[in-house]
Design brief:
The chain has 179 residues and is an alpha+beta fold. The chain has a single domain, classed as Immunoglobulin-like. Helices cover 17% and strands 40% of the residues. It is built from 4 helices and 11 strands; from the N terminus they run ααββββββααβββββ. A hairpin with a 2-residue loop joins strand 5 and strand 6. It starts with a helix and ends with a strand.
């Protein structure tokens, strides 16, 4: 009788033990899901017309689109920014300032004397769901804008993930600049 009880007690172990140490199968994720960014970049143009004689300010918003905290590496220095700004007219980039050339790695030796990137530090910061960073961008700090007309502004940031790189792109904003 004791042997039968032991046999019945041991029987479930024969079915359960092979399951230990086995990874839980996960559903396969598509390449699109792996490359889906967890935040957005949104550019908002001013409500009033832009003039060549005034600051050319636009608002840029970073929004965590998940329901949990995200961590992003950020650089802290005068000229560093992982945010790449592109300002074009008739499909061509507008003439850049020395600051923009340094930020994008296209600086001359004269530009480098004006703006040094040697004091760059990076730190991963936590961002809660919702808008986590908003700033006003004066396009004159990055571009030499001398003509009125229609311009297109975009921004992007490249994130390194365990699955590769993801480029987070903003909306494209058309700006009409009047004399």
């Amino acid at each position: 009788m004791k042997i039968r009880n032991i046999a019945f007690a041991a029987l479930p172990l024969l079915f359960v033990l092979p399951c230990f140490g086995q990874p839980t199968p996960r559903p396969a994720r598509s390449a699109i899901e792996l490359q889906k960014p967890n935040y957005t970049i949104t550019i908002t143009p001013p409500s009033a017309p832009l003039s060549l004689n005034s600051p050319l300010l636009v608002e840029v918003f970073f929004t965590n689109t998940t329901t949990s905290d995200i961590y992003m590496e950020e650089e802290y220095c005068k000229t560093c920014s992982p945010l790449q700004i592109m300002f074009t007219k008739d499909g061509k980039e507008v003439d850049t300032t020395p600051l923009q050339r340094v930020r994008t790695g296209r600086a001359s030796s004269v530009d480098m004397k004006m703006y040094s990137r040697t004091n760059a530090n990076s730190l991963a910061r936590r961002h809660r769901p919702g808008v986590f960073w908003k700033f006003n961008l004066d396009l004159r700090t990055l571009y030499n804008i001398t003509e009125s007309g229609q311009y297109v502004l975009t921004a992007s940031r490249t994130e390194k993930t365990k699955d590769g790189e993801v480029v987070v792109s903003s909306n494209a904003v058309t700006l009409n600049i009047v004399p």
